[in-house]
Structures are given as C-alpha cells and as structure tokens.
Amino acid sequence: MNKACSSLFLSFLTISENEEFGRFYCYDGHDEPSSSDSTQIIYRASDNRKGGTSPRIGTLLLKEQPNCFCVSEEQRSRICNYCFREKSEGMKLSRCKACKYSHYCSMECYNADQHLVECKALQKHPQVTNSMRLMLKCFLSCKTVEDVEKIENLSPKQSMKDIEDLKQLAILFCDYVKELDLSISLIGHRKTDVDYLYLLFQKIQRNTFSICNDEMNVIGSGLYVHTSLFNHSCVPNCTVLFDSKKNIYVRVINSNIKAGEPLTINYVDLLDVTPNRQHKLDKQYHFTCQCPRCTSTVNSEERNTHVESMLEMANDFKQKNQLQEAINCYSRVVSKKKSSPKLFHDIYLGIALNALAHNYVELGEFEKAYHYAVESLPLLEQYYPEFYPILGLQYLMCAKLGAHLEEEKHHQARTQTTSSFTPNISSQWFQKAFPIFSKLFIHEDNTPFDVLRRNQITF
Ligand SMILES: [Zn+2]
Ligand SMILES: [Zn+2]
Ligand SMILES: [Zn+2]
C-alpha cells in the first residue's frame, strides 16, 4: 500500500502491509493465506491506553475526495455537474449547448470538468448510463502513474466469474468512446481493450459509493479508493457521510468497538430483509455476508414477494409523480399488516410507513406526515444503528413537522380566542436528533447541523 494514503487517514488509523503504526491497524488480506481478497481495516487499541479502547462516537476515521465522480442522470439538470452545488434561488445552472446534457454553475466548473471529451460522447449517446459515464471519468482521471496504480490496485485484482451484464457494458463502452481522443489518459490506449474494460467495470462496480446530499438523497456516484477498503456489515460500527464538496467522511457510530474488531460500513440499505440484502451484496460485491444479523437464527427475515410487488408498484407511481396512487399502495401494505400482523415481516411495514410520511410531506399534508413519521420510528430504530444519519434525519423530520403543527395550533388558539393547551410535541424529537447531528454531521461546510442552527433551534 503506498505511503501517500496514510496521510489521508487521521493519525490513529493507518493503513499498511502487516505493519502497525497507530491505534488502528489495517492489513492487506492478500498476504494472509486463509483470508478473502478484500482488505480489512481493524481497530487495535494502543498499548499505552488503558481501559476504554473503543473510539468515541463521531470519531472521524477517514476523509477522502473521489478519484472520479459523476452526477446522477436523474439529477443532472438541478446540480452543477462538477461542483455538485444544487440549483437554488440566486444560483443558476447553464446547460451545455453542444450536448444539452450537462449543467454547470460557472465557466470554471465547465473547464474543470474537462467536459469537452465527454461532451463529444454525450452528443452521440444521450441515453448513456451512469456507470458508463463514470467509467469515462475514470479514464480521464488517470493522468499520472500513481492515478493508474490506485485504480489498478482496486479489488478485484483479477476478473471474477462471468458477469454477463458487465461484459456487455464493456462492449458498449468501446462504442461509446471509440471516436474520442483519450490521449490525456495514461490508460487511454486501452479504451477498446474489452478484457481490460471488463475488469475495470468490476472494480468500479465494487468500489463506487453513491454520493448523497444533506437529506441523504442520492445525487451522484464516485470512486473512493480508500473508503472502499472498509468492509460491509448489516450491523455496521461506522458510517459514511458526504459534504457538499463530494468529500466522504467515515465516522464511528458505535462506542463499544472491541480491539481487533473490523471497522465496517454498510453497502446496502439496512431497512430490507436478509435475503434481499444478501442478494444485492452477492450481485454487486460478490460475497455472502456473515454478519450477526445475516446469521441470526432468532429473527428470521423472510421475503414476501406479494408485498414487495405492492411496494414496487407504489414506487413506480412515485417516480411518475402520482403521489396519491403511491399512497394508496403503501396504505394497503399498512392495513394488511394491521389486520394480520404475522402475514409479513415488520421491515416492510417500516418501509411503507416511512414512504407514507415522505409522500404526505410532498403533498403538504403535515399532520398525516407527522403521524406516519412517528409511527415509523420504532421500526427504523430497530434496524438502523442508534447513531445513524438516516435515523437522525427521521427524528429531525418528526421535529420539524411537530413544530409546524404546534405553530398551527397556536395560530388557531389565537384566532379563536380560546385558551387551549398546545402540547410541545417537537422538542422530544429535537432532543433525539441533536446527538446524532452534533456527532456525525460536523463537516466544515453546510450541513443539516446548520439547518438546526439556521432555524434557531436550541436545546
Ligand atoms: Zn459548479
Ligand atoms: Zn456538452
Ligand atoms: Zn449481513
């Protein structure tokens, strides 16, 4: 592992080849005869520190910029394709006149994105997929020998068993770039080498992170070569967050990490049943998760395909902006569960309640939204770790909706000149949200933590 990467990690988390530097220790799985091909990051308490060995909640383990990135297809007209600033009042985005695809907030961003190369490809292939665009960005990012090494050192080092759709992607990519001048890239001469592209697509598929905004909505994807060294667990002890400059932050979310325990993040959504999580992990990352939740025999999380198709239908309506139809589907799931609680797993109820809350927010029906958001909390609390960004956001949503309802009740009381009692329903949720926000959302720039401050919410 090259020396340069150690500076990326904070002093106590160092990555090395079987050599201990600090309190954190990482070894390359390749050198261990019996291990898999993935690198593990292991926490090891230092000798000079007695007692409490676990790092504190919120401890920053790694901050990293993406090697290459691209904005999601769905978000491209509302986010600057280079700096990822979101369109807002006072911030205009200009669409590239040539490809009519990419949007930028300034000439600086347009130039910095080296858009000219991609622009030519986009003009011919406007229907291109996100992974194809990320691959081209990956090519363009390889300007020095170190850049190439970083990419080529990613796992898997050799092609895996046959992955048909990636092979197809490699062939499509040849067509996508065949007329482009990729001479600025040190791997540009391999742009039509299908075997090389196939392996590169496997590396990208395995090491790419979805970039999320403050509300945890996916706005793009990026390759983070060091963050991808963290292994997955469905009961993770760390989490990833992003700032608005696409930096990724890995923070500790469990205060009871034992010495020698691997530091883990989650690659897939935790609010899903075990067979589905395992399927996704196998398909994209090619391993079978052996975490405590996946191997638990106490609470088996069985799939229910009927409910899943109902949720899928709801999601399709949502995509088409048919909110009322989506709500009807989610409500059916909720009432089915209430009439026969054993029919399907609680997780599906959690998904439906959470979706109902968000849909009602969009419809401006805040009382209903509040009701469903609060009802979803016990389920989210069960499947997300205690200090988990999404859980923090859910508490914040309850708090904001609660504050809005209080305001309305106050207003009614004033206009009706009755002295009705307005219960303070929001503060309990703010009190739950605050520890998560103050420990996790603490990047230098605009974060939901500032949202709290801007709203002058004090505790
Ligand atoms: Zn910009
Ligand atoms: Zn263009
Ligand atoms: Zn698992």
From TrEMBL:
<protein>
    <recommendedName>
        <fullName>SET domain-containing protein</fullName>
    </recommendedName>
</protein>
<dbReference type="InterPro" id="IPR001214">
    <property type="entry name" value="SET_dom"/>
</dbReference>
<dbReference type="InterPro" id="IPR046341">
    <property type="entry name" value="SET_dom_sf"/>
</dbReference>
<dbReference type="InterPro" id="IPR050869">
    <property type="entry name" value="H3K4_H4K5_MeTrfase"/>
</dbReference>
<dbReference type="GO" id="GO:0005634">
    <property type="term" value="C:nucleus"/>
</dbReference>
<dbReference type="Pfam" id="PF00856">
    <property type="entry name" value="SET"/>
</dbReference>
<feature type="domain" description="SET">
    <location>
        <begin position="167"/>
        <end position="268"/>
    </location>
</feature>
<dbReference type="InterPro" id="IPR019734">
    <property type="entry name" value="TPR_rpt"/>
</dbReference>
<dbReference type="InterPro" id="IPR011990">
    <property type="entry name" value="TPR-like_helical_dom_sf"/>
</dbReference>
